[in-house]
């Protein structure tokens, strides 16, 4: 279902509850403190313009005492500015990292819930590709830039209100004589600054409207390039063994060329903005003096008031130019927000699909049964295509069953039992309090110490090192005993055979009631695979074992075959 809310409303629904979270008192206190410090910054800015007017009046009057007095005031302004600015920085950065941390934890929790990180990869990736980049980079930009933009907008509105009054008072009332008619205008400097800012904003928006599309395209390609690099690093051993470096280099450079294309697109957009901002900055510097000097020349205002009007004019224009000045930042922020929302919405839609109660839902539940029961189970593809026959069977505790996987539906049956594959029909009943363990073709070995990697997903404190050393010897991996304290990227350092032996060690450590072996020993020789199966059977006599294997020698280990 397409979410019809605007991206901003969707973002606030996702990230806004931070201010009502567990630490809401501290968060709200920091927010209020940030507002107070911003008000103090505006107060200092207003006072500086008044100080500037007083200083130039003293200079115009050639009063050394007046100049000396203003030096003393400047020292106080200097101290106050440092104090307020430093406190503002500290509070703002606490709010930035707090919001990012909260949202990161929320999205990661949603992403890692019940295998959703895997299931979402089976769907279209248009709106949720590269979740690593969306979580690591886009959440950072979405939260940090949201606070930066909100603060700068609030600051600009305060500045607009404060300096409009100053400029209005200095402008007084002037009469524009056009021979045939005379038009009296009050606050003419205010009207000039407003007109100038509106024209500049319209022109700036028109020249920079292509930046959003260019920024989105570049961030997407940057994320794709990072993903390709990570993918290459993760498969470096396989690439090296088959001498695929040339092809891989070509693939990576092609991915980088896509970045260059979007970089050129963004450069073109930046060029238009730069042309505008360069002319805009020069005009903004000269215009306030040119429009304010006639009143000084005729003696209506002092030199100090002229300089104060210049500063007030520039502050007003700066405040009114907030949309133009922040156009690129807004484009970057919106792009990152949409990428975060794409991932979150994809997970939400996946959740809705999985929990929608209809006839094409495979249910898995804990029940008061003695064995694993498959009741009218049928495996289907994500698109709904039937992949298996209707299965009615019961696997008893300690039974060894060979799964016939000619249609490649066996692995999906294992995923269904583990709660990761809801597509299909029927019901799977699992004995209450029984633990399940799926052995994939290669075990996941995190880049920690080998001891911690073997213990995964439990903490290393759950097992005794002597126990692991004995099991390593039992599976014939004596040389790994001395490497238990070593930290490394084990998927790269160990051969496929060694990794599969470690998979056996991990199972023997966790001692599950139900074990699902998915081609997890196929890298071993036929004799070694049989030996490992017999070791598992002897050490775990009450464990029900279901196996998918392509080794004919392993068939004798099993008591029967389950056809799917």
From TrEMBL:
GO cellular component: plasma membrane
Keyword Membrane found: yes
Any Pfam family matching the protein: ABC_membrane_2
Key words, A-Z: Membrane, Transmembrane, Transmembrane helix, Transport
Molecular function per GO: ABC-type transporter activity; ATP binding
Transport listed as a keyword: yes
PROSITE patterns, per the entry: ABC_TM1F
Membrane topology of the entry: Multi-pass membrane protein
TM spans (from-to): 31-49, 69-91, 149-168, 188-208
Cellular localisation: Cell membrane
Ranges of residues in domain ABC transmembrane type-1: 32-332
Ranges in a coiled coil: none
Entry protein name: ABC-type transport system, permease and ATPase component
Lineage per the UniProt record: Bacteria, Pseudomonadati, Pseudomonadota, Gammaproteobacteria, Methylococcales
